[in-house]
């Protein structure tokens, strides 16, 4: 009884795989523009904070 369930599950998976297209197409994600004028400024501050933090970590590790 158990082997019949396994066989049915395997055949269902094989049927699903064969019904799908063989070529997978890449869908490029949508590029969003800045929703408000402060977004670019916020990114700049974030990158500046990361840079300063990395420098502190490097100084401590020497």
Describe this structure in words.
There is one protein chain. The chain is an all-alpha fold and 62 residues long. The chain has a domain at 35-62. Helix content is 68%, strand content 0%. The chain is built from two helices and no strands.
Our estimate of the beta-strand percent is under 5%
Biggest pleated sheet: none
The count of helical stretches stands at 2
Helix content: 55-70%
The radius of gyration is: 26 Å
Mean pLDDT: 80
**Large-scale geometry:** elongated
Spell out the helices and strands N to C: HH
Unreliable spans are none
- What structural category do the secondary elements indicate? mainly alpha
Amino- and carboxy-terminal Cα gap: 67 Å
How many β-strands, per DSSP? Answer: 0
Key descriptive features of the protein:
mainly alpha; 2 helices; 62 residues
In brief, what are we looking at here?
With 62 residues, the protein is mostly helical. The protein has 2 helices and no strands. Helices cover 68% and strands 0% of the residues.
């Amino acid at each position: 009884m158990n082997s019949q369930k396994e066989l049915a599950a395997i055949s269902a998976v094989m049927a699903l795989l064969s019904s799908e297209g063989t070529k997978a197409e890449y869908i490029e994600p949508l590029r969003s523009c800045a929703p408000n004028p402060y977004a670019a400024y916020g990114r700049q501050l974030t990158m500046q904070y990361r840079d300063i933090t990395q420098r502190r970590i490097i100084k401590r590790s020497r």
